[in-house]
Amino acid sequence: FYNSSALKNNKIGISDAIKTTLRNKVLLPYLGRTAEQKPATPTDIKLNGTTLTWSGNAAYYAIYKLEAGGKKAALLGTTTQKTYTLPTKGTYFISALTAVNEESEISDQIDYK
Predict the structure, then answer these.
(1) 90-97 and 73-79: which strand pairing?
(2) Within the chain, where are the H helices?
């Protein structure tokens, strides 16, 4: 058995280190033994106010925001819906995912200005 009181009490900063290291959301990679067919890339990306919508047929979708400089993107979240409320202005794109996290190619980008 392991005692978790060191994590809870945070006497030497273990909890703080974990929070700092794991602060960004990530998707678990597909770890299947067989090849999983990638889902179709989301299409018909539209923005109405702060609401992003798209078309697709997947188990769920990942929404990303392009970071400054355009070379990295941050995962904002996942949804089973074909709609997502954007938190801030920026450039966004979507990918479709299967139930076991096989990810599609990314969608076209859309700018929220």
Answers:
(1) unpaired
(2) 5-9, 14-21
